[in-house]
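To fix ideas, we give here one paired sequence and structure record:
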Amino acid sequence: MQIDPQQQSQKENYKLLIGSVLPRPIAFVTSRNGNGVVNAAPFSFFTVVSTNPPMVSISVGRKPGNVQKDTTRNIAEMKEFVVHVVDGENVERVNQTAIDFPPDVSEVEAVGFDLVPSVKIQTPRIAQAKVQMECVLDRILPMGGTPDAPNTDLIIGQVVMFHVRDDLLAEGRIDTRLLDPIGRLAGTSYGTIGQTFSLPRLSFEEWQQRKREQE
């Protein structure tokens, strides 16, 4: 089947994308406005951008009428935010923060998360998250839509401090099993890591040798 995205609605293309690009890691982001109100929201359009310096990105869709979400407005104003990894222990409360709370209501307090101070930025962190990344804003890029009404704001941040629960780290590596990260699927579905396997990256010479052995 061939599908031309230009012949489909935005909603139809959205369904194809979220049903194809998966599982998607979830960034649970805290930000704050000039009055100190802390906002928290999950985003599954999230990935690593760079390792030198460490950088991550989140894609935040705009609301109807070309209205930016609270997260985007806060980050644009305060130039900082915190990304938390969503895991099996906190996913239910993270999902509740996606409720359309009024701008003057802190989702964090409403769902029972606890805030703790960050080290290098003013935006607080979620105590219940096993991995937290303090970020300073690098840039915000309006994407898609039209020049006057973009579809999405791509937010790129530099990680200036990592917080990792002590028992997760071994020789500088995070134990995936103990982290128990949750991925976003299509619709209202989520998924765990489940079965894992390892595939070594071969040199060209090793690949040739294996190919000869299989012939």
Q: What stands out?
A: The domain at 5-214 is CATH 2.30.110.10 (Pnp Oxidase; Chain A). The chain has one domain: 5-214. The radius of gyration is 20 Å. Helices lie at 10-20, 70-78, 91-96, 107-111, 176-179, 204-214.
